[in-house]
Amino acid sequence: HGFTSDQLQKLIYNMCFTFARCTKPVSLVPPVYYADLVAYRGRLYHEAVMEGQSPASVSSSSSSLTSTSLSSDASFDERFYKLHTDLENMMYFV
């Protein structure tokens, strides 16, 4: 990629000032923080969807893929949170 170690260090340092939630530099580059926010939000949505299922149906879909588990995946997709069209491709979680 053609970066020297000094250029790479300067790039990472400058990126630490671009985190949207903070006016001061952060300890990690913002893409790492944003990935953490996305994962956290996704886990919350997943848990909210799974609350409606019985414990047996959640534990039964652990390791093997069968036609039953594939059909339950389709119903999971149908029940998963639908994002409003105005928020698509936006980092609303920031």
Automatic annotation (TrEMBL):
InterPro entries: Piwi (IPR003165), RNaseH-like_sf (IPR012337), RNaseH_sf (IPR036397). Residues 1-47 form the Piwi domain. Residues 54-73 are annotated as: Disordered. GO terms for molecular function: nucleic acid binding. Pfam families: Piwi. It comes from the Eukaryota. SUPFAM superfamilies: Ribonuclease H-like. This is Piwi domain-containing protein. It comes from Citrus sinensis (Sweet orange).
